[in-house]
Amino acid sequence: MKPFLEDFLTIFRRLCLNPSNKTSNDIPTEIQDAIMSILKAFENDIETTKSIANTMTENCEPFILQAEMGLTGKALTVLSVVAKGSKIAAEIILPQIMFWLGNLINADTVNAPQNRQEIIVEAINFLPDWLSLSIECGCTQVVRDALPGFIESLKRTEEQFGAVVYPVEYKLSEILLSQSSKFEDAAVLPTTDLYEKLVWRSVTDLKKEDAVLRTEIQNFIISFAKSDFQTLATLIDKEISSREMDSSLLELISLATVDEASMDKFGGVIVDALKREIDFDLSRCIVDTIER
Q1: In this structure, how many other beta carbons lie within 10 angstroms of the beta carbon of residue 12?
Q2: 203: closest CA among 165, 260, 255?
Q3: What pTM was computed for the model?
Q4: How many helices (H) does the chain have, and how many strands (E)?
């Protein structure tokens, strides 16, 4: 197989990154299986595995950075398959992906100004999956290195384009919280200000009729409560002391109630609030709290 390896990789690239097929970011299962099989065949050959990773990275680079071609997502999918197939390959691919995503979010490679917002927002939406994959592959240092720049980029994009980044911020934060045990010291991640902002903003965002946004908020708050309840409780106490109690604040408190300790903390607040008023949506929230 080795003499034909370069030919195989070229064929995979041509089949997956055909400019005439931009309808989906998915690639055929057969090609995914073939890539995995090749990586499996050379799992004890470090140099060949590195060569595969480098070749696929080089082949995919123009399709990722020239976002106007419309194949960024599909090229990223190809590289995600390679990264999943080998830790050695992942250590080569993942830092490069983080660098490229940073370039796209900063619009460093955008040639057409009219496409700028679309490309930036698309790149931002890739972040959660790639951070999650990096953690899954055991490459947490890649996440540590990339995170400060991504958080700053999210802040800047929010200032430019508004609420379009909100679901990504919540989803990214939920991933970091739910996977915090994978980091040697999650406390040193530069997320304190981000989490505080999201808890503060969630009271307003929970009022919105946006099912995707609401789901991401709910997942974020529940993960926060399970991973670091004391910090979340402190942030919620600040909101309780500075706002009038309403359905969205009560929903936030209910989402944070995930176990006996959190019920001891917020159970009385919930009961007192329910004595005042309750609506259908809030009833569902309380039922979910009891089920948790």
Answers
A1: 22
A2: 255
A3: 0.90
A4: 14, 0
Per DSSP, the three-state class of 253 is helix
The CB-based long-range contact list for 78-83 (8 Å cut-off, 24+ gap) reads 78/12, 78/13, 78/16, 78/17, 78/27, 78/35, 80/129, 80/130, 80/133, 81/27, 81/32, 81/35, 81/36, 82/35, 82/39, 82/52, 82/53, 82/56, 83/133, 83/137
Give the pLDDT confidence of 95-152 residue by residue, as tens digits.
999 999 999 998 877 666 777 888 999 999 999 999 999 999 999 999 999 999 999 9
Cα separation, 207 vs 44, in Å, equals 54
How many Cα atoms are found within 13 Å in the side-chain-facing hemisphere of 174? Answer: 19
Q: Are 43 and 49 in contact (CB under 8 A)?
A: yes
Q: Determine the Cα–Cα distance for residues 282 and 62; give it in Å rounded to an integer.
A: 49
Q: Are 250 and 273 in contact (CB under 8 A)?
A: yes
Distance CA 132, CA 191 (A): 16
d(CA 173, CA 175): 5
The domain spans of the chain are 1-162, 195-292
What are the pLDDT digits (tens) for 198-211? 999 999 999 998 99
Q: What are phi and psi of 228, to 5 degrees?
A: -155, 70
Half-sphere exposure at residue 257, Cβ-oriented, CA atoms within 13 angstroms: 23
